[in-house]
Write a structure and sequence with these properties.
Shape: globular
CATH class of the largest domain: Alpha Beta
Helix content: 40-55%
Strand content: 5-15%
Number of strands: 11
Structural class: alpha/beta
CATH architecture of the largest domain: 3-Layer(aba) Sandwich
Oligomer: single chain
Number of domains: 2
Distance between the termini: 89 Å
Largest sheet: 5 strands, parallel
Number of helices: 15
Radius of gyration: 24 Å
């Protein structure tokens, strides 16, 4: 019986070979196909005033779970996805504020709307213009004001542009222990600062276990996760009976991330949030005016509000058109426009321009991720430029052909 047992040397040789093969495979993947992150918690850091920024001087890759894109993700020393902000070129600069639609981790940095707009302005005035990007994932309107207060206003500029996304900017203005927020009271609004420095990282999956540092593990995990995801969607589709009621019953699980966007807002949704949004923009406008600059807000609608209103652009949820017919897809844009008009802030709703494209606007969003593709980023940048030029706001900010940038 003993002669059939493997010799200790052979066992060690086999084990050693397996270890060497795994090490070689891990090194090869790290060199030729590094595993990109898709957890915000791996990239953000706590900020006692703004809530969070990205970690400074990052140099990594970004993707999402279905691997719709893999893009370089680099941050500057301030913790924003942008180049260093000094020196300001002779053509001047403008500040860009927003959330993930302005961070735009889904496209290469030169393809984002702030960079595209800066190139259009540069060509218009004949001198290089720079965009100063102070956007971060999941920022609320309150954080737009704080990011400008603590970072943006420190650099020379005469124009501030906000991209307000109606899909979640209303929801995000309600604060929690890791997010700064405005609390109404009898004496007016007071700013409540973040109280839990670790909570934002915990919620966004930033604390990885030791074995998740291995790219081989993450590759195989993502592969099998993708298979399970596809199987789950097939099962859910088979159960849907064509009614709105059963739609939410069937898709509650796999559709939980985005389904609030397509549901009717609960009673009191805007009643609670609009005063906070209004106060955030009032404070931002006051700061911008104090610095002698102009504030302009562009309103970015949810994907369902333009182009493909039947819900067929993603193919994820058959029958979504039944749900969309029950919603007022213009309500969020109307709400924020009324607030900005009351404050006297220049605003432009991108919805009509996007709707005029009809079904061709389907290519403007990633199917699963829903954020803008490079084509979508370029389109809204061109619409922004045309509005700013026709309204004379570029010349007012010293960014026109006959203007001179102010110090």
């Amino acid at each position: 019986m003993a002669r059939f047992l493997p010799r200790p040397k052979n066992v060690l040789l086999v084990l050693g070979s397996i270890v060497l093969a795994l090490v070689a495979a891990e090194v090869a993947i790290r060199v030729f196909a590094p595993w990109p992150f898709y957890s915000r918690g791996m990239t953000v850091r706590f900020h006692p005033e703004v809530g969070w920024t990205f970690a400074p001087n990052l140099d990594t890759l970004s993707t999402n779970q279905p691997r719709e894109y893999v893009r370089p993700f680099r941050t500057n020393s301030l913790g924003f996805r942008d180049a260093e902000h000094r020196p300001i070129p002779t053509g001047g600069a403008f500040v860009a504020l927003g959330d993930s639609y302005t961070v735009a981790r889904e496209v290469f940095r030169p393809q984002r709307w702030p960079e595209v707009l800066a190139r259009l302005i540069s060509n218009y005035q004949g001198r290089p213009t720079k965009s100063l990007n102070f956007a971060c994932d999941a920022y609320s309107p309150t954080q737009y004001w704080l990011a400008y207060k603590w970072f943006g206003r420190k650099f020379p500029h005469k124009l501030v542009i906000v991209l307000f996304y109606t899909g979640n900017d209303f929801a995000d203005v309600i604060g929690n222990r890791n997010t700064p927020f405005l609390a109404p009271g009898p004496g007016g609004f007071r700013l409540v600062r973040p109280q839990d420095p670790t909570l934002i990282v915990k919620r966004w999956g930033g604390q990885r276990k030791w074995y998740k540092w291995f790219h081989l593990y993450n590759r195989q995990r993502d592969f099998f996760a993708g298979l399970r995801l596809k199987r789950k969607w097939r099962q859910q589709r088979a159960r849907w009976d064509g009614t709105v009621k059963n739609f939410w019953k069937v898709y509650r699980g796999p559709f939980q991330v985005v389904n609030p966007i397509y549901r009717k807002p609960p009673a009191g949704f805007y009643w609670r949030r609009l005063p906070l949004v209004r106060e955030s923009f009032r404070r931002l406008q006051r700061l911008v005016k104090a610095g002698g600059a102009t504030l302009v807000v562009f309103i970015m609608p949810q994907r369902r509000a333009y182009g493909d209103r039947q819900g067929g652009s993603d193919g994820l949820a058959p029958g979504l058109e039944v749900v969309l017919k029950t919603l007022d897809l213009d309500q969020p844009q109307q709400k924020i426009k009324a607030v900005l008009q009351d404050l006297g802030i220049e605003a432009y709703d991108l919805t009509p321009a996007l709707r005029r494209l009809g079904s061709t606007a389907r290519d403007f969003n990633f199917p699963w991720d829903t954020h803008l593709t490079a084509k979508g980023q370029a389109f809204i940048a061109k619409v922004m430029f045309d509005f700013l030029r026709k309204k004379g706001l570029l010349k007012k900010a010293g960014l026109g052909p006959a203007g001179r940038p102010q110090p």
